[in-house]
Amino acid sequence: MNKTAKGIAYVSIWVMIWGTIASLVDFALLGADLYENGSIGQASTFATYGLAAIVIAWKLAPKFLNETD
């Protein structure tokens, strides 16, 4: 797989991971009435999980995006 396609696939997978995990947590928090749709709490949930996904993806990137493939 060429470098560009590998990078696009890597980012796409992380967007799916972030969206899925943040949505599941959001669903649980909305169900527990901890915040409402469209609130700052909901935005904070997605932003926090987004930042965590960025950090993890950044740290794992060298392992998956190496030049030896």
Explain what this protein looks like in three dimensions.
The protein is built from 2 helices and no strands. The chain has one domain (3-63). It starts with a helix and ends in a 5-residue tail after the last helix. It has 69 residues and is an all-alpha fold. It has helices spanning 3-31, 40-64. α1 runs antiparallel to α2. The protein is 78% helix and 0% strand. The radius of gyration is 15 Å and the shape is elongated.
Keywords, please?
single chain, 69 residues, mainly alpha, 2 helices
Topology, pairings included?
Layout: H1 3-31, H2 40-64
Helix pairs in contact: 1-2
Beta-strand content: under 5%
Number of helices: 2
Poorly predicted regions = none
Strand segment tally: 0
Major pleated sheet = none
Which value, in Å, is the CA radius of gyration?
Answer: 15 Å
Structural class assignment: mainly alpha
The first-to-last residue Cα distance is 8 Å
How many discrete domains?
Answer: 1
Helix content: over 70%
Q: Spell out the helices and strands N to C.
A: HH
Subunit arrangement of the protein: single chain
Mean pLDDT: 93
Q: What's the overall geometry? A: elongated
Précis, in short:
The protein has 69 residues and is mainly alpha-helical. The chain has helices spanning 3-31, 40-64. The termini are close together.
